[in-house]
Queue: 2 jobs
Job 1
Amino acid sequence: MVGTQMLAALPGGATLATSRNAHDGWLMLDLADLAQRSQAAALLDSYDLNAVYCVGGMTNVDGCEAQPELAQRVNARGPGVLAGYAHRRRLPFVYFSTEYVFDGSEGDPGPYIETSRPNPLSVYGKSKLEGEQRVLASHPDALVLRTTVVYGPDPGQKNYVYSLLRSLSAGNVMRVPEDQISTPTYNRDLIHATLGLVAASARGIFHVCGPERMGRLEFAQRVAQRLGLDGSLLVGVSTAALLQTAPRPLQAGLAIQKLLRLHPDLRMRTVAEGLEDCAAEILAATVR
Ligand SMILES: NC(=O)c1ccc[n+]([C@@H]2O[C@H](COP(=O)([O-])OP(=O)(O)OC[C@H]3O[C@@H](n4cnc5c(N)ncnc54)[C@H](OP(=O)(O)O)[C@@H]3O)[C@@H](O)[C@H]2O)c1
């Protein structure tokens, strides 16, 4: 989801996209298999690059619990190796991380700032925290961007807005965790902010997300309302009732003061503004 928006935002024809699967014109790169810098060199040395964006990752939070070793290779070891390669070539490197590096506990709730103490609860969160550490250790000038609940236009129609649209327009009840509090992020703003940080040669950890902290139920209700869906089909439940494999941070969310201090004119849109930008596009493109 983030990667396709990144490709849309970068100058057409000037981007070298990679995938673990074969795609026309794309380079094959499986982060799980990237163990040595020489592998990255064999793949990338012949290309004239000016930045590396590590957007790929094992993002299935529950799936990571079942395959912790694979999650570590994809989310931590591979990005660390790639960052080391970028450092050797003096290229900016961006690693996308997550609010799930925090525990969202009542005793230490969000919104978190960049220096807040990480304490991941899940294999996914642990692998991403290790990824951050490996990336910064092998490329001290790298950018680590933590984001959360990314929504917006997505050709793969994978994100939460699309799940809501499909379920609610089919008349299905959707159970939504009302105790997961976060700061939803419009994907186009995430990309815009990312490119701005790279242009400003920013380094280190930045939180990049929307400006409002809200529960998943409220977010789902706002989406339903904006897309003209039947919000009465949304049923608020506790996270515990969903019996998900991986524990989730509940009282979470990220704060973006550091980002806004560097870029005071940056517009990270509210959910209403983000949906205003993309609702018509999403409704027109969605296969229900
Ligand atoms: N979406 C969010 O709300 C959110 C929140 C916080 C952080 N993030 C972070 O943002 C980044 C992008 O997330 P996203 O929402 O765009 O996730 P996504 O839609 O699931 O995209 C992840 C991409 O990574 C690829 N991938 C998976 N395993 C790989 C491997 N072994 N080697 C190379 N590529 C692999 C996937 O390829 P396939 O298509 O082959 O599966 C997919 O294209 C991730 O690093 C994620 O941790 C996202």
Job 2
Amino acid sequence: MRFALLTTVVAISAVACGKKGDQNQTQSAPPAAPAAATTTGPVVEVKMTGNGTTRGAFEPSTITIPVGATVRFTSVSGFPHNVAFWQDSVPAGGAAVLNANMKNTIDNLSGPFLQQNETYEVSFANAPKGTYKGYCTPHQAIGMKIAIKVE
Ligand SMILES: [Cu+2]
């Protein structure tokens, strides 16, 4: 079991590294990884858009998803974008779940920066119900925010 888990981590890292230039790919995880929490529920798409200076948005900026869903963020325009969550604006216990489910974080509850057409998936497997408020680090000041209601 321990060996299988290590293999999964290595496989996910390899996929992440190979992603640049792979711009038409929309799938993200290899099919073989039963330990990955990212493929268990429905996938809900959110676009990240903007003009790089005065406008940045998650589209849609409010979504409602079931427990176990995965939100797939795609960086479309005005990048780089990321998705980060406020530790004090998620339900009790939610931060620990997100920290376990978010890959390649750059800070607490903060996903990596995405360039054109890159995607990032956040699984809400085992996530407590409630509203998770997030933002894009580069564009927080111009109002790039999202509310994800898990119910
Ligand atoms: Cu942004």
